[in-house]
């Protein structure tokens, strides 16, 4: 995570009743001397509870509580492999001074890096680059961590960008020449492949357009693109072929509007 990005607050501890309310997330153990994850989830219903394994033999949890407190780096590399095989995107917790050794252990094993939750009790919540969380404060009752706005493996995956980009309504309607005699210009949104024109034009003639696909300053001109009415085509799509802008000029004298968009 880049330093200075959006952060959330997470609390963890071995006694659920000591944890303060108001956290964005909580964390608890699934094994070891204090398996409290279930009790924390019961105390804070509706909050995400990050499940921590303290033993490399526990095939559970999203976070492995790694060295120097528990196990060896080689063992935690194998734990991460097992968790991935179980469909989990794992994180390993360690302190700032041990972090580089952990990174090297995964590199040496040829295993993809986990996400990293780093402990450094300096009172500064800034998450270091390359980590998703930082445990920056601790007292007798609980620990406090700052957490990235999105924690893979903990938070639901973001929804993919819509495959169709919708332009503002007033810019989607291509009016008759009597209303708008000039051309229309559009910036092509990311993730789309076609310019789409749609019209009914019931019992009328076809609407006709000059469409120019712009790739920087290089134009590709489509003349007499017809849609609606007598054309027999009411929805037409034209590949954008890498264009980053489109200009459209209406050529016909029909009195019905035509919708324009991208998909």
Structural commentary:
The protein contains 4 helices and 16 strands. The protein has 263 residues and is of the alpha/beta class. The strands form 3 sheets. An 8-stranded mixed β-barrel has the order 1-2-3-4-5-6-7-8. Strands 9-16-11-14 form a 4-stranded antiparallel β-sheet. The chain has a 4-stranded antiparallel β-sheet with strand order 10-15-12-13, with no helix packed on it. Helix 3 (96-109) links the parallel strand 5 and strand 6.
Number of helices: 4
- The unreliable regions are 161-171
Strand-residue fraction? 25-35%
**Span of the ends, CA to CA:** 32 Å
The gross shape turns out to be elongated
Structural class: alpha/beta
List the helices and strands and how they pair.
Blueprint: E1 7-12, E2 25-29, H1 37-43, E3 48-53, E4 63-65, H2 73-85, E5 91-95, H3 96-109, E6 115-119, E7 133-138, E8 143-148, H4 169-172, E9 173-174, E10 183-187, E11 194-198, E12 207-215, E13 218-227, E14 235-239, E15 245-250, E16 258-262
Parallel strand pairs: 1-2, 2-3, 3-4, 4-5, 5-6, 6-7
Antiparallel strand pairs: 1-8, 7-8, 9-16, 10-15, 11-14, 11-16, 12-13, 12-15
Features:
4 helices; four-stranded antiparallel sheet; 16 strands; eight-stranded mixed β-barrel; alpha/beta; 263 residues
């Amino acid at each position: 995570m880049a330093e200075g990005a959006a952060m959330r607050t997470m609390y963890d501890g071995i006694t659920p009743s000591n944890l303060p309310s108001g956290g964005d997330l909580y964390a608890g153990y699934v094994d070891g001397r204090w398996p409290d994850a279930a009790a924390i989830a019961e105390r804070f219903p509706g909050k995400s509870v990050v499940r921590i394994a303290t033993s490399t033999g526990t095939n559970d949890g999203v976070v492995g509580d790694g060295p120097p407190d528990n196990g060896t780096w080689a063992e935690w590399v194998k734990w991460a492999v097992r968790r991935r095989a179980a469909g989990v995107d794992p994180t390993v917790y360690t302190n700032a001074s041990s972090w580089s050794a952990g990174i090297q252990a995964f590199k040496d094993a040829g295993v993809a890096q986990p996400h990293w939750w780093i402990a450094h009790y300096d009172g500064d919540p800034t998450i270091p680059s390359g980590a998703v969380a930082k445990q920056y404060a601790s007292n007798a009752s609980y620990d406090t961590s700052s957490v990235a706005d999105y924690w893979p493996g903990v938070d639901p995956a973001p929804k993919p960008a819509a495959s169709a980009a919708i332009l503002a309504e007033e810019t989607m309607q291509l009016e008759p020449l009597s209303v708008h005699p000039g051309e229309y210009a559009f910036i092509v949104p990311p993730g789309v492949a076609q310019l789409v024109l749609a019209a009914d034009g019931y019992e009328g003639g076809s609407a006709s357009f000059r469409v120019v696909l712009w790739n920087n300053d290089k134009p590709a001109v489509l003349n007499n693109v017809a849609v609606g009415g007598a054309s027999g085509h009411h929805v037409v799509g034209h590949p954008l072929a890498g264009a980053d802008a489109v200009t459209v000029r209406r050529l016909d004298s029909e009195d019905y509007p035509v919708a324009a968009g991208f998909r």
